[in-house]
Specification:
This protein has 433 residues and is α/β, with parallel strands linked by helices. The chain has 17 helices and 13 strands. Bound molecules: uracil (URA) and calcium ion (CA).
Amino acid sequence: MRMVDLIDKKQHNIELTEQEINWMIQGYTEGTIPDYQMSAMAMAIYFNDMTKAERSILTMAIVESGEQIDLSDIEGVKVDKHSTGGVGDTTTLVLAPLVASVGVPVAKMSGRGLGHTGGTIDKLEAIPGFNIELSKEAFVELVNKNKVAVVGQSGNLTPADKKLYALRDVTGTVESIPLIASSIMSKKIASGADAIVLDVKTGAGAFMKSVEQARALAESMVEIGNTVGRNTMAVISDMSQPLGNAIGNGLEVKEAIETLKGHGPEDLTELCLVLGSQMAYLGGVGNSLEEARAKLEENLQNGKALKAFELFVESQGGDKAVVDRPEEILPTAEHSKEVLAEQSGVVSMIVADQIGIAAMKLGAGRETKESSIDLAAGLYLHKKVGDKVEAGESLATLYSNKPISEEVKTTILDNMHISQTAAPLPLVHDIVR
Ligand code: URA
Ligand code: CA
């Protein structure tokens, strides 16, 4: 086989065979197929798309390019959740204990944040003592005992994706639905998920700017999952404004605890219930999404979800006093500043990605993989889209361990629009199953 022939085929919109795709991904992983040929292929895929069959084959070829996590020692259906990246997305911190509290095992491998989107591992490390480096045995044992554990990514999972994603990043081929769908699904499958729930974000803060693009991506991932034997569902949710009120690691831990106590922000609570009911349902709880949701709502009210969080934190070495006294236990920032509204009206837009970048500049995120992170830094939005505001009232509080510049304040003011009226923002656009 010659790579140039495969490029030629894709360029002429002829379907690639399983044998060809497997050969190509193996060769690219091993380095016998060079970057320049793979970039030409990625561009041909970008323009000519892939068939449903090609997408599933590509996904499994990427899975097989490296190690796969075997979670068969964990009892029950292992359901994983993936979000396509948001700003201030606190859902995993809430969902892991919430779903565990209804008996579904949550064996989660998570990453660190990069750029303006946060990572669950960084958030958990805001809790003093919390250990994300568990041995495989300890991880499995904890999930069997408590139904929940979270570890940092380790091992050589999907090396083909690492190479291909980096290549796409510099060749203008990131925004291709078959390439995004296979990239995301291969990572979930290689981490051992039996069933997968996807939160596909749309709006200014998201990768997929329109609902149509988000739906196409969601449908493709659901199709791939179900074709390769993993029950998969997706939610298309709005990320034109940040989720919840807190953005920043320690601040989001506090927000998650409030949500598990039943008085978190409305949008965050609702999205956790929507995603959580899909996870619980796929994990075998209830005969419908409605039944699964009722169980989750019950555990938010009766304190079982909060108890599951406490046990989860304690079992991984974290200080469980964080549940009752988050202000005392979580890191605090040396500097804080209020951003005051310059006019009265209604908040009509909060540009999520710009707010995320402001939080990163305060120290909450990494500009490069090597940058260190300020776990106390970030911001708290006192107003969301649709809220009334008076001139002089605080729109947001900024937190940082370095002096806070006027520039960050200006970014917030420029990206929280105040008008006379505001159109309501939907939270969940659609469900794909
Ligand atoms: N996230 C991924 O993991 N892969 C992509 O291709 C795009 C977003
Ligand atoms: Ca949040």
